[in-house]
Amino acid sequence: MIQFYSPDIAETLCLPESDSKHAVRVLRMREGDELQAVDGRGHVYTCRLADAHPKHAAIEIVSVADVPLPWSQRIAVAVAPTKHMDRMEWMVEKLTEIGINDIIPILCRRSERRELKEERLAKIAVSAMKQSLKAVCPKVWPLTPLPSLLDMMPDAQRFVAYCDPSVPRLDMARECLPSRDTLILIGPEGDFDPTEIRATLDAGFVPVTLGDNRLRTETAALYAVSVVHIADTIKAR
């Protein structure tokens, strides 16, 4: 099944140019053919192609269905961007496929990347949403300084993962509670510096380790989000 993405489809009755080209030029769809489109906010539209234009394909809406995310809580990961953007892009794709609400690139003292094209990352999230047949797209935030996140989601379970063994840490897999809003902080490739670790602990974040292996930044983010989903799966059993 192929899903198209049109955030304003109910108002425009049209597919964006990229999706119009894919439908008409690549898939060779014609007037009268049915297709499925999502708006990224939890709605799936069954549509009929009214005008097979390769730049602005017009559609008729046949029906609308609400398709909420399969998890009930808010899951957010704040992660320092990697030096190589291809790894960051891969991370956004995989986090979207696994399931997440917010992807927040953070700026830290030891960050190796201090500029980011969040528009590119947002497009990758949209593509991964369509590929994984979700109807809700995660929010990709602009690059955000770490101090700006210390008051975020105060009622959630909040974890900070770091490598410094001199500051005691707990096992996230044991500490993570199911069905709870969750915010996870993942530091840069050089780790959070000691002042940042102290600031997160003072703000009430729980210090955690992600196992005995040292993980790349993007792997750590995937591991942490997977832990949250696995906790829900275990509870359901």
Overall geometry comes to elongated
| Rg calc | 20 Å
Largest sheet: 8 strands, parallel
**Helical fraction:** 25-40%
Oligomer: single chain
Flag low-confidence runs. none
State the separation between the terminal residues, measured CA to CA. 30 Å
Percentage of β-strand residues: 15-25%
**From N to C, what is the helix and strand string?**
EHHEEEEHEHEEEEHEHEH
Number of helices: 7
* Helix/strand class: alpha/beta
Number of strands: 12
What is the arithmetic mean of pLDDT? 92
At a glance:
The chain is built from seven helices and twelve strands. With 237 residues, the protein is an alpha/beta fold.
Kindly describe this structure:
By secondary structure, the chain is α/β, with parallel strands linked by helices. The chain is built from 7 helices and 12 strands. The longest helix has 20 residues, at 217-236. The mean pLDDT is 92.
Give the arrangement of secondary structure elements.
Elements: E1 3-5, H1 9-12, H2 17-26, E2 34-38, E3 43-51, E4 58-66, E5 75-79, H3 85-98, E6 102-107, H4 118-131, E7 139-140, E8 144-145, E9 157-161, E10 170-171, H5 172-175, E11 182-186, H6 194-202, E12 206-209, H7 217-236
Parallel strand pairs: 1-2, 5-6, 5-11, 6-7, 6-8, 9-11, 9-12, 10-12
Antiparallel strand pairs: 2-3, 3-4
Helix pairs in contact: 3-4, 3-7
